[in-house]
């Protein structure tokens, strides 16, 4: 039974994952290189064991990486983890890289697997489990049941592909939404309003393929025959996105993006959104059980 886990990275995602593991009665260690952040987190989360060096913890069963999304950093880390923790299952929380690319410098990827948590990881139930072609099936099963034991809703992918499933669906929707803003069809606020009050509410209880069955596949085919040719299909980031990044309009963190965040208390807003998300999850689970 897996009971000792190590989280690499004490940032927002790493700490959220650590909370999930603790809910599953795991003994959690957290490795964070930044001394100031490590000290701050240790005061904020006194129940976790924060370490300065990897050799401070032994007999680790599972390691979950949650460091910045830089491929070379991840590759070097997993090369080191394979050497120092040969008995451990090694998980990467990458949201964009192929798992096999993350493990490219490893001797063997039998114990390597992707565990893609969705933010906020301590609230959102879903975790995508992505094996490489070399991943031992027993590792897939072990991680699936560990995550279930932590209260998560894991989903296994049959094989890896860029963006996995969730981010591919999300990226397609975001690309179309940005394209509509770019073309002046509607404001960002109105497009988000439609996404939340038409699509979002329904998606909480009915997935896109289930909804197509409800509507009728013949009806959907008729729609797609003339609609698909007009949908955004750019293979490059849209100009509107590139321009905002060039202008340092990066979103909430710079107080400007598709929205103006200058007058908003963003910390308070995020707390409210997390509470609302928890309520939606509770309702969706209750409906599933009926």
From TrEMBL:
It comes from the Bacteria. Residues 163-261 form the 3-hydroxyacyl-CoA dehydrogenase C-terminal domain. GO terms for biological process: fatty acid beta-oxidation. It holds the Pfam family 3HCDH_N. Keywords: Oxidoreductase. Pathway: Lipid metabolism; butanoate metabolism. One of its GO terms (molecular function) is NAD+ binding. Coiled coil: none annotated. The record marks 116 as: Important for catalytic activity. Belongs to the 3-hydroxyacyl-CoA dehydrogenase family. PANTHER family: 3-HYDROXYACYL-COA DEHYDROGENASE FAMILY PROTEIN (PTHR48075), 3-HYDROXYBUTYRYL-COA DEHYDROGENASE (PTHR48075:SF5). This is 3-hydroxybutyryl-CoA dehydrogenase.
């Amino acid at each position: 039974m897996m009971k000792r886990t190590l989280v690499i990275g004490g940032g927002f995602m790493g700490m959220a994952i650590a909370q999930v593991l603790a809910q599953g009665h795991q003994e959690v260690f957290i490795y964070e290189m930044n001394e100031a952040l490590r000290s701050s987190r240790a005061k904020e989360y006194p129940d976790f064991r924060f370490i300065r060096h990897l050799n401070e913890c032994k007999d680790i069963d599972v390691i979950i990486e949650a460091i910045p999304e830089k491929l070379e950093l991840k590759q070097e880390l997993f090369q080191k983890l394979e050497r120092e923790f040969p008995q451990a299952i090694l998980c990467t929380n990458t949201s964009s890289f192929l798992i096999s690319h993350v493990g490219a410098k490893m001797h063997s990827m039998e114990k390597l697997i992707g565990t893609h948590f969705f933010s906020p990881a301590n609230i959102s139930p879903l975790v995508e489990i992505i094996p490489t072609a070399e991943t031992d099936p027993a590792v897939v099963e072990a991680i699936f049941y560990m995550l279930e034991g932590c209260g998560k809703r894991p989903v296994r992918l049959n094989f890896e592909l860029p963006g996995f499933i969730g981010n591919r669906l999300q990226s397609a929707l975001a690309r179309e939404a940005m394209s509509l803003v770019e073309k002046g069809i509607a404001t960002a606020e109105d497009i988000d309003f439609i996404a939340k009050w038409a699509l979002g509410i329904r998606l909480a209880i009915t997935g896109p393929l289930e909804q197509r069955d409800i509507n009728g596949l013949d009806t959907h085919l008729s729609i797609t025959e003339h609609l698909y040719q007009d949908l955004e299909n750019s293979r490059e980031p849209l100009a509107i996105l590139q321009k905002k990044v060039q202008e340092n309009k990066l979103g909430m963190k710079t107080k400007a993006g598709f929205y103006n965040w200058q007058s908003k208390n963003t910390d308070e807003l995020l707390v409210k959104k997390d509470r609302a998300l928890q309520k939606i999850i509770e309702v969706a689970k209750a409906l599933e059980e009926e």
